[in-house]
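Journal club side-thread
Mid-discussion, someone asked how the predicted structure for our own chain would compare to the paper's figures. Pasting it here so we can look after the session.
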Amino acid sequence: MIAPRKVPIKILVTGGNGQLAQSLALIAHLSDAKVKGGSFTRMTAQTMQALVNILPEATNCLREQDELHLFSHRELDICNSVAIDASFKQLKPDVVINCAAYNAVDNAETDPESAVKVNVEGPKLLAERCKRDGVMLVHISSDFVFSGEKHSPYNEQDTPSPLSVYGNSKLAGELAVRQVLGEQAYIIRTSWLYSCQGDNFVHTMQKLFAAKEQLSVIADQYGTPSWAEALAVIIFKLIKQKEAVNCAANLSASLCAGLDTHFTGRTVSDSVASNRLFHYAAASSCSWFEFAQEIQRLRLVSNKSKKAHCNIKPISTLSWQAGHEQVLARRPKQSALNNESVCQQLDVRQGSVLKAKWQQQLKGMLDFQQIIIAN
């Protein structure tokens, strides 16, 4: 059983230099929580207020006394049990968010050992240590656990059927975590993640638009883009909700009085559903080609340009593969994720950016990017 939460809470984040970890740090910083480690760069008060204006739900995700500790791969290799033990002894975390992953989808086809080591064996070791210490684990997974044969967004009850080595390794990682921790672990599947930081499709397109006059983008693979900052808010909301429920179940009412229950989505007296598997992505879906078109359109609007420098053309997956000598992994044709379950769990209201269509979230991210550049 997960131990009762003490105040403040300490959160250990693996893969601390990665895109999602940096987004978690940004949202934690916005709440005035203590952010330590990693390569996180603090932003000005003006820039942070701009993010609040775009994503109001980002406020009050953590408390000022809470701590978020980013551990890079060099500082914590999740495949090394000795390194895990040392980090736990050093920090004594209440929560672990596993953002570490092997995400080289195509390389995994010829190097499955690396994918399995990082995506399966590492999460299992983390789960074992979390179980030993009564620590909550949030494990991040992928839409690639699905085959793509479904014609509507996947929900948590749909049966996974991966097509690639990478997809199989992510599913095996979920099963390994679940086998060790059962319902004590939160598993969150997401897709097509992007933000102002790190390597992602949005950044790649922005660079290519500036460098090329013509660009071919795959038009027959569909999914749901996900703003990493929005996902970070969802993760913190789940942690706060679990903290509130644990407090109500294990501590006296007087000790729970200081909890920030307005953010948890439900009051501490409410029971939380036993489901610990969630999907989170923006609403609606698109192809990579349509995603690229919208990035370019919004870029032109923000730059007040009337004509695009780069002509984007649709291309099929088969044609794309024909132009590459490398063995490319099979990808699902349609891997959109339905976020209804987690939004209902957290009482995310209609009109919230967290439930918005991907176009609105993308605009929010690009607007925030422009403010960062300006400041």
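Post-session note: The first strand starts at residue 10 and ends at 14.
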